[in-house]
């Protein structure tokens, strides 16, 4: 896609679960995953994220299954560097890109929680994890692009005669490449983003916060002669009237609180995640920011995960998304509190209305040029 095209990403999981839906039954419901992936494809999404958690089903295998029951939609595999050798990960991603027909992207998550990382045996601290990711991505690119075996010796990895017979279907600048999605707002993260990210992902921050962070990432990328696309994540809450949308938002907040009490969760905090701290900083300024950014759920769950919403009619939310587009954001990750049903609903009006607004904006810019 070009720098000006708009991309919509959804999210699928192994079973029905969200802040207002407690998980029930086995962790993998194949029928639900199939219906969920196909619902996104039918709704006009470009790509779906398969998330990663230290207790969740394997995201790589989930993508492989979802790709087998869809035809067009692309995927964003959430992957934590450090648990699989980068040489093996490079071959896995290249293989999955081949089997899916060039539909893979990978979102590299260095990790914002020491506790979460330790579940899988990782004892590096926050900044060390980003340093490891830097080297990890360096090795991945070498494996994808090298035409002959190579040696590598770094702070975290050492390989001799590393090579892969399989290369990705997709290319960048004429060389095999799987698109790199990357997140992280800390001082340790931004330099890595500048070197490697094709798409830099923010959580649903305020416009001022998004402007500040995208400016920093652009400046870092420019040091390497690169440009970066940007993604922002929201949980749109839609209804046919604005009042009905806000009423639905309040019901979602009430159910989130009720379910957390039932499950014995406390609010907690952002742990080591700078992105979560930024969401809480926004929430401290009020539960309603800008045109229709709603932070109440993010505050309730301690800023963990993309948990801020845009609330209103499809027209109003599309208009709010355009404000981020005007900041240079061309990718929107949108997922609902009613996951499958909301994905279908977004496809009815929100996605096509946003695409229409972007097309109108581009047409106006071409006429003015």
Automatic annotation (TrEMBL):
| Alphabetized Pfam families for the sequence | Bac_luciferase (PF00296)
Q: Where is the Luciferase-like domain?
A: 20-330
GO molecular function terms attached to this record:
alkanesulfonate monooxygenase activity
GO BP field: alkanesulfonate catabolic process
- For the keyword Flavoprotein, the answer is yes
Give the UniProt keywords, A-Z: Flavoprotein, FMN, Monooxygenase, Oxidoreductase
- The reply on keyword Oxidoreductase is yes
Name used for this protein in its record: LLM class flavin-dependent oxidoreductase
């Amino acid at each position: 896609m070009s720098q000006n095209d708009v991309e919509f990403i959804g999210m699928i999981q192994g079973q029905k679960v969200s802040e207002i839906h407690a998980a029930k039954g086995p962790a993998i419901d194949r029928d639900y995953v199939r219906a969920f992936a196909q619902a996104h494809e039918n709704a006009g999404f470009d790509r779906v994220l398969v998330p990663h958690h230290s207790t969740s089903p394997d995201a790589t295998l989930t993508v492989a299954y979802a790709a087998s029951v869809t035809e067009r939609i692309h995927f964003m595999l959430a992957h934590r560097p450090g648990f699989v050798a980068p040489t093996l990960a490079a071959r896995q991603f290249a293989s999955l890109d081949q089997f899916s027909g060039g539909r893979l992207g990978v979102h590299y998550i260095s990790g914002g929680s020491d506790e979460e990382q330790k579940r899988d045996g990782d004892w590096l601290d926050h900044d060390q994890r980003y340093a490891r990711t830097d080297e990890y991505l360096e090795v991945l690119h070498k494996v994808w692009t090298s035409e002959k075996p190579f040696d590598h010796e770094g702070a975290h990895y050492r390989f001799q005669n590393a090579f892969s017979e399989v290369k990705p279907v997709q290319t960048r600048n004429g060389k095999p490449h799987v698109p790199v999605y990357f997140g992280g707002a800390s001082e340790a993260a931004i330099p890595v983003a500048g070197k490697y990210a094709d798409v830099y992902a923010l959580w649903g921050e305020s416009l001022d916060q998004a402007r500040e962070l995208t400016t920093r990432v652009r400046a870092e990328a420019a040091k390497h002669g690169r440009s970066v696309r940007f993604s922002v994540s929201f949980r749109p809450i839609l209804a046919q009237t604005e009042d009905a949308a806000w009423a639905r938002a309040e019901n979602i907040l009430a159910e989130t609180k009720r379910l957390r009490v039932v499950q014995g969760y406390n609010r907690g905090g952002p742990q080591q995640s700078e992105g979560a701290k930024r969401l809480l900083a926004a929430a401290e300024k009020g539960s309603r920011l800008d045109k229709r950014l709603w932070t109440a759920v993010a505050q309730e769950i301690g800023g963990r995960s993309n948990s801020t919403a845009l609330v209103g009619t499809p027209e109003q939310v599309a208009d709010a998304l355009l404000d981020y587009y005007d900041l240079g954001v061309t990718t929107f990750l949108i997922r609902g509190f009613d996951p499958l049903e909301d994905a279908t609903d977004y496809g009815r009006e929100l996605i096509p209305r946003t695409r229409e607004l972007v097309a109108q904006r581009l047409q106006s810019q071409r006429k003015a040029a």
